[in-house]
Write a structure and sequence with these properties.
Blueprint: H1 10-35, H2 41-69
Length: about 70
């Protein structure tokens, strides 16, 4: 028998995911500031691209939070 779909804590989990992702973005930016001059252009581009994907993920999480809050 399938478990019932319990979404009661989805907003809380999504908010935690937003916070964790934002923290990872800050850490990556801080790392670039501290060590960017020592890094290759390719490595810096990789970190910047990853942060861009993180930003897109945060927007997706926020949309999901809005959807969950409206249900």
């Amino acid at each position: 028998m399938a478990k019932p779909d319990d979404r009661s804590d989805n907003v809380e989990k999504l908010q935690e995911m937003v916070q964790n992702t934002m923290e990872n973005m800050r850490e990556a930016r801080d790392y670039l500031k501290a060590h960017g001059e020592e890094m290759s252009q390719a490595d810096k581009a990789d970190i910047e691209a990853k942060n861009q994907r993180r930003e897109e993920s945060v927007e997706g999480f926020r949309e999901e939070i809005r959807d969950e809050a409206n249900q």
